[in-house]
């Protein structure tokens, strides 16, 4: 993806579809629209997956907790989408086994019945059947499980992925199908003709240039910021988004030395808690805290960190402490409310809603990563009607995403971070062959090299050190302190690629250090 070349494509004819927002929802719509053959543009004011879409629990799942709420339709939809994404992005989505430990004699049969229903709802797209494990088999599967009083466990399967890498993959897939996809482009105004939105005024946040782009239909896919865009259309629009914050802690692999995850079925507030192996680390979360305002860089609350540590310790033999936390990150879920409600956020489902305003703004709100494809399909059915576009069928059910590769490729182990580049991995390695310096690690505690930095700038529209360390690689989440230490070398490589000077390098390093300090638990608490 070359940003300047794509910007030049903004001039000319009317776009069929303009998408505002470059997270899971917006990128999904761009892929759907472009793959149907519609002339499509997407504008993201910051960076792809900058907010919620890079801070998930990294699961492609049906939502076991919704079985308890008897929301079978939502679970079925999500399980079907899980199966489709597993097939369409085998380089990014993998099969992960979860064990629900049992400490009372009746828990095994109880969870077993529920998870057999989970299997049944998945149908032919099920990843693998759930099964009961005895005490010794449970300990072997999750060696750090709390063994006192352990009766056994139930194993089931769901999908795991890298959310920010999937976002970049979707952006590249949309571009492969002819879309114009741009980050650092802020939609400032929605302009109307005879009461119908037919143009957007966009500011390039890099250059300050203004662009006026004509569109048959505009889609608002800005997640937790959906109400802000809706008020560009109608200043009196009633708010529909109530953000709920989810926090995750990152620990070293000793807290989850096996290849399987733990699913804690009940916590202090009734939520489930996951202890998940991810990128040779262990991810623990999440919380569900109602928030008053949508924030681009939310911070974990002390009580959320304490909640996770306390509840995880009940199921782990080696208890995590604050000193063990390599990183802490928070994301806000875009829960949809029509009017006031006193329902707690954890009881609200992650279903999505498409709303069309009187002037034709199509807003897709709610949902979750797993169902992004279906959300996009539903959105496009409305967009086609609003924009009076020629109807064309959705093709994304069987659309291989950019970089698709055979899941069983022997040259690309599942645990290799290069696997997430899919078929592009060979070109990535060619950079190292051309310049062996790019094969050197960015940091001894991170799995990335200079080659990933160069690739991010040349092919993935990375414009800042944050883009590279937070999303093109996952350095910020895997070890926040190590990522701060690697920032100068990343800035140096990027400056060479982008033609920037030493002052730019210094500013980037300082800016990144300020942001990343909020992901270091000790620094975060000292700032509170």
Largest sheet: 10 strands, mixed
Strand content: 15-25%
CATH class of the largest domain: Alpha Beta
* Helix proportion range: 25-40%
Q: In whole angstroms, how far apart are the ends?
A: 39 Å
| Rg, alpha carbons | 23 Å
Low-pLDDT regions: 340-349
Mean pLDDT: 94
CATH topology of the largest domain: D-Amino Acid Oxidase, Chain A, domain 2
Strands, count: 18
Which outline best applies? globular
- Structural class, judged by helices and strands? alpha+beta
Number of helical regions: 17
CATH superfamily of the largest domain: D-Amino Acid Oxidase, subunit A, domain 2
CATH-derived architecture of the largest domain: 2-Layer Sandwich
Number of domains: 3
Mind explaining what this structure looks like?
The protein is globular, with a radius of gyration of 23 Å. The model is unreliable at 340-349 (pLDDT under 50). It has 528 residues and is of the alpha+beta class. A hairpin with an 8-residue loop joins strand 12 (261-264) and strand 13 (273-278). Helix 2 crosses helix 10 and helix 15 (480-498) runs antiparallel to helix 16. The chain is built from 17 helices and 18 strands. It folds into three domains: 3-52 and 164-240 and 346-398, FAD/NAD(P)-binding domain (3-Layer(bba) Sandwich), CATH 3.50.50; 78-160 and 242-341, 2-Layer Sandwich (D-Amino Acid Oxidase, Chain A, domain 2); 417-527, Helicase, Ruva Protein, domain 3, CATH 1.10.8.870. The strands form two sheets. Strands 3, 4, 5, 6, 11, 12, 13, 14, 15 and 16 form a ten-stranded mixed beta sheet that branches.
